[in-house]
Sequence to fold (456 residues):
Amino acid sequence: MTTMSIPMPREQLERIVRQAVRERLAVGDGAPAAGAAYRPNLVVNISARHMHISQGDLERLFGPGAELTVYRWLYQPGEFAAEQTVTVLGPRRRMIEKVRILGPARDATQLEVARTDAIALGIDAPVRRSGDIEGTPGCIVIGPAGVLEMPRGVIRAERHVHMSPADAGYYGFEDRQHVRLRIESDCTVVLEQVFCRVDPRFLLEVHIDTDEGNSCDLPNARRVELLA
Amino acid sequence: MTTMSIPMPREQLERIVRQAVRERLAVGDGAPAAGAAYRPNLVVNISARHMHISQGDLERLFGPGAELTVYRWLYQPGEFAAEQTVTVLGPRRRMIEKVRILGPARDATQLEVARTDAIALGIDAPVRRSGDIEGTPGCIVIGPAGVLEMPRGVIRAERHVHMSPADAGYYGFEDRQHVRLRIESDCTVVLEQVFCRVDPRFLLEVHIDTDEGNSCDLPNARRVELLA
Fold:
């Protein structure tokens, strides 16, 4: 018998089961079949500014033995917004409070901000893929039990889409390809350079930041579509 | 002899002269000529949150006889950011300080905010053309000499492009048409529904708001282009 190390709530499990059922309906090469066509369920979510953190840095900020605890489960299986938040301090002592940490803990600590946040902090954060933090600016992070000087890791996350191989097959996309996302609203935009991340564990979900989401008023969008 | 009622700085006069010279080089129907082709000078500027104000409301906020004074001249001839700023208060007492007024004074008072500002204020500001404020939400405005209760006029300005008839001819656009703007950067976007405003007094300039400008990192854009 195996046990799961991360407790998973019913809604996440249900999403995974529904996804598996949809994929069983897909034909082998991913092309939509005439009869029971695989219909991906495209979800676009805004990632507000947040932090990913290593276990070492977590303990530095929250004390020895600290662990991330679940505030809210996210759409991707196993991912969660943690109860833990920090204060971030840029040069010239400008700060943003209550920046939420996302769990589980990772190998490298990084802070993902929108351009508006970067301007507020006075940090020129480059557009980067998650984990690609070499040569990026750092900042000061303040937790309840300590202060962390991040030498690097402040980025604006490259807009990206998580998808399963079945989703990729449906759209004809490949892992690490750039595609476009059109969001139709009273202020329609097409976002180019949306990076595809294909993995069997992923549910189909685009992540954009608050600037991108607000530029097109995503919460009131009438239609979203992925384009080559 | 005539005199100008609004003092105009040298840089604005120079822009107007340059525009007139470019237009003289354009052929009559606006199509680019083979020899001396008219080349429009496309400028894209971010309009930060700001207020337009009637003379009556200006005096209510700044006292009897108050007049707008020039803080900085804008790109469009005669338009300026005023030295006067106000504090804006939304429901649930959320506020934004130092909102700049743009001059000259107009017939109707209106507050133009980005979606991010609207969320900060707690006001659901609709996308509207300047002046089209019927049925829009209001707010409280606080000046040094008084308080103004705006019953309506809080909008997110529809992205738009100012252009002369020669510019319109070059692109093949018509007044009040919707066109697209592509901004190429590390996070390229195509903004649809850009409203054309054609007038002989206009210089070619797109106005987008801070959310739109930050979504594509406009200050570091490599290329901007208007598309049908």
User: Anything to note?
Assistant: The helical segments of chain B are 10-25, 55-62, 115-121, 165-171, 210-215. Chain B touches chain A at residues 114-116, 119, 126-127, 156, 158-159, 186-193, 210-212, 214-217 (CB under 8 Å). The longest strand of chain B covers residues 80-89.
